[in-house]
Write a structure and sequence with these properties.
Helices cover 31% and strands 18% of the residues. The chain is α/β, with parallel strands linked by helices. It binds 1-deoxynojirimycin.
Length: 721
């Protein structure tokens, strides 16, 4: 399609339509109630809605084809719609929430999962997914931490790029390739007090140094689209933030793809108090660099006036429209507006055995073994197993933002254990609900009875899927009194108990950790959750996940993260309560978290030895080789995530106490050892210096290698320039 020619033939109304995205419901003629409702609230007529260039929130191939037919019939130039959707961690077959995927430290697995999700979505008619989410997250109160791969810029960037490669495949040329949209630009993960949509206050230094690299990694990986965030940064909503959109994104990063606003975000600038009215909102957003407006119609309604007043130019509108037409063209929609949408392929692919096997593996690799005092793995010969707790039979374990995923598709822990141990007697009781503030414990007696009689107890606790995600911030992170009472009662009567904890964020597990012999954190594991949990508990699979987000001891420690800055008055031992004052302490608890970034146990012990660096100097021309030998001292096949950190000892600006620079996931048979060799270059040592340049500074660097961000071996090298 010659899109320049098409553009030259389009009316202004058609062009503005291409810059407007509406909910799928707007295209359904048969749904008059919704048409007159939402459309009138946007200030447009039904006929206007049909000019819109893209849509979201439709359901499956049949729906997509119907809507495409309706829209194209109404379009003067028969321009096909772009169909977008939040495919965040699977389409119908669901893998763990992204925070869990972060704990896999596994780019290949992430790419494979994204590819699978993209394929299922493509056959359901999706052209663009609003994923990956690259918001750096350091405060577990924020419900959307579940959508991020975690607290670290390096890890997030590598996994974000893997998501993009998985979705976009061969530059959208493959039948099942879909476009990705990185979000939410920028720093949406740092809202004040962890409350969703709240203001973000960051220096430009911290923004550039810590919060932007993840988004940038996705741009470098070729992501097609980007979504500004709802929040203000330094008082300016991202939707009209010229520093972010114009100077950094379009200018420094030379991004020429589509910028799409978040849902109703143009109009929310009025609530933020920076846009006077809808017309002003359109002016601000477009002039900052936005192309497409999601779920409001200020561009459509007011751009003509703004053009006449000289507040916008036709060149701006044309450039934005061309970006939209170009994506449609490269997706092949002008030739085939249904693209890969196929009811038959939906039936073949959704929840197919290969996809289920993949998401089960992902759920196994995302799970983190937090504690194990010789309890796990349970014997596969167990005759009597008790599966107790609010998540024992809970099917709502797929997680927030599961797109077309359904609770009824999910395998519960109870079903997983029963399937794995067909000869065992597996009894269950709920004991209490998962309500955040539940206090009543109705079935304690039955829980005690089952626990007392069992060879092994699986205690399924945690947080329900709808208690994280958008709009779901929490001011407390503890397990409810009821869940703790249940745990105490069960553990008292059977020490062979392992807690399996579901959660969309790091919960505060300090009290539970003191009493329970073993804890496996399984996040919201997705469709195959129960099978993955059973295989991990009974030793068919070996936990290998490592935390991509720090677990606090108490909510009062939030935000908490390993890559913190030095303080001039550090405590002597962060693991104990410091008694004397005038240092950076809490009176009532240690400074250290309960579980640090990068932490996670296995059924094996891995020893680290022969830590060497190839030189005591590093120069721009001579990178450093950092080597370590890791040995599996255990009895199981296993995977270990080996981590490389640095500390810049002295610089023109304060540097973090530790920064992850590389990691490797290795697989070892019992008794096997392997040398892991990292290459560290001068580029890895660069940062935003005091004069604002991105450069390294000569001097001493400590190099650390180890299994997590606390247990580290170190040496010092000198950067010569
Ligand atoms: C609002 C969310 O912030 C964003 O992440 C999502 O993509 C859009 N809604 C569309 O559903």
């Amino acid at each position: 399609m010659d899109i320049q020619k098409l553009l030259s033939e389009m009316t202004l109304q058609e062009k503005l339509g291409q810059l407007t995205q509406l909910n799928a419901i707007f295209f359904k003629h048969d749904n008059t109630a919704d048409i007159t409702g939402p459309t009138s609230r946007l200030g447009i007529e039904e006929s206007d809605a049909l000019y819109s260039g893209s849509t979201l929130n439709f359901i499956g191939a049949k729906d997509m084809k119907e809507i495409q037919d309706i829209a194209m019939a109404a379009q003067p130039h028969k321009i096909p719609l772009l169909f977008m959707q939040d495919v965040i961690h699977g389409y119908r077959t669901i893998y763990p929430i992204p925070l869990g995927m972060g704990c896999t430290f596994d780019e290949e697995l992430v790419e494979e999962c994204a590819r699978m999700a993209g394929k299922e979505a493509a056959v359901s008619g999706v052209h663009v997914t609003f994923s990956p989410m690259l918001d750096l997250v350091r405060d577990a109160r924020w419900g959307r931490v579940m959508e991020s791969t975690g607290e670290d810029p390096h890890l997030n960037g590598r996994l974000g790029a893997a998501f993009v490669r998985g979705y976009q495949g061969n530059h959208l040329q493959g039948k099942y390739d879909i476009a990705a949209c990185v979000k939410h630009f920028a720093a949406y993960g740092a809202p004040e007090a962890g409350r969703d949509y709240n203001a973000v206050e960051l220096s430009e230094h911290t923004l550039r140094e810590t919060y932007l690299p993840g988004y940038r990694a996705c741009i470098d990986a070729g992501v097609e689209m980007i979504m500004p965030s709802f929040n203000t940064v330094g008082g300016v909503p991202s939707t009209c933030n010229r520093l972010l959109l114009d100077r950094i994104l379009r200018g420094e990063w030379a991004f020429d793809g589509i910028v799409i606003s978040d849902y109703n975000a143009y109009r929310e600038m009025i609530r933020h108090g920076v846009a006077e009215n809808e017309k002003h909102a359109a002016e601000l957003a477009i002039n900052a660099g936005c192309d497409v407006e999601m779920m409001s119609a200020t561009t459509y309604l007011y751009a003509q006036e703004l053009l006449a007043e000289g507040k916008l130019t036709m060149a701006q509108i044309d450039r934005a429209v061309l970006r939209v037409l170009d994506l449609k063209n490269r997706l092949g929609l002008f030739e085939n507006p249904y693209r890969a949408a196929s009811e038959q392929e939906e039936a073949e692919l959704h929840l197919c055995p290969a996809h289920r096997a993949l998401v089960r593996r992902a759920a196994e690799e995302a799970s983190v073994l937090l504690k194990n005092e010789g309890v796990l793995p349970f014997s596969q010969k167990a005759k009597k197993v008790a599966v107790i707790g609010p998540f024992a039979k809970e099917k709502g374990i797929k997680g927030f933002w599961s797109c077309a995923g359904r609770d009824e598709d999910c395998v519960t822990v109870l079903s997983g254990v029963r399937a794995l141990l067909p000869d065992a007697e597996v009894a269950t009781v709920k004991g209490c609900s998962w309500a955040v503030d539940e206090t009543a414990v109705p079935d304690l007696d039955e829980a005690i009875e089952l626990a007392s009689e069992a060879d092994a107890v699986v205690l399924c606790l945690g947080e329900y899927q709808e208690h994280t995600g958008e709009g779901n911030s929490r001011a407390t992170l503890n397990l409810s009194p009821a869940q703790m009472a249940l745990a105490r009662a069960v553990i008292k009567h059977n020490k062979n108990t392992a807690a399996v904890i579901f959660g969309g964020r790091p919960l505060v597990l300090t009290d539970l950790a003191e009493i329970v012999p073993a804890m496996l954190y399984v996040w919201q594991p997705g469709t195959e959750g129960g099978n993955a949990v059973a295989r991990l508990l009974f030793g068919k699979a070996n936990p290998s996940g490592k935390l991509s987000m720090t677990f606090p001891r108490a909510v009062g420690q939030c935000p908490i993260y390993y890559s913190r800055m030095h303080t001039g008055r550090p405590v002597k031992d962060p693991k104990v309560v410091t008694q004397s004052g005038y240092c950076s302490r809490y009176l009532d608890m240690p400074v250290a978290p309960l579980y640090p970034f990068g932490y996670g146990l296995s059924y094996n012990t891995y020893t680290y030895d022969n830590f060497t660096v190839s030189d005591d100097k590093i120069t721009p021309d001579a990178p450093l080789e950092v080597a370590v030998t890791v040995k599996n001292e255990g009895a199981y096949e296993g995977k270990e995530i080996v981590q490389l950190y640095i500390r810049d000892k002295f610089a023109s600006v304060a540097r973090p106490v530790l920064e992850l620079k590389d990691f490797a996931k290795i697989e070892l048979a019992p008794g096997e050892s392997a040398a892991v060799i990292f290459t560290l270059t001068e580029e890895d040592l660069r940062f935003h210096t005091a004069d604002g340049t991105f450069a390294s500074e000569r001097g001493e660097f400590e190099i650390f290698v180890g299994p997590d961000s606390e247990r580290l071996m170190s040496t010092t090298v000198y950067l010569e320039k």
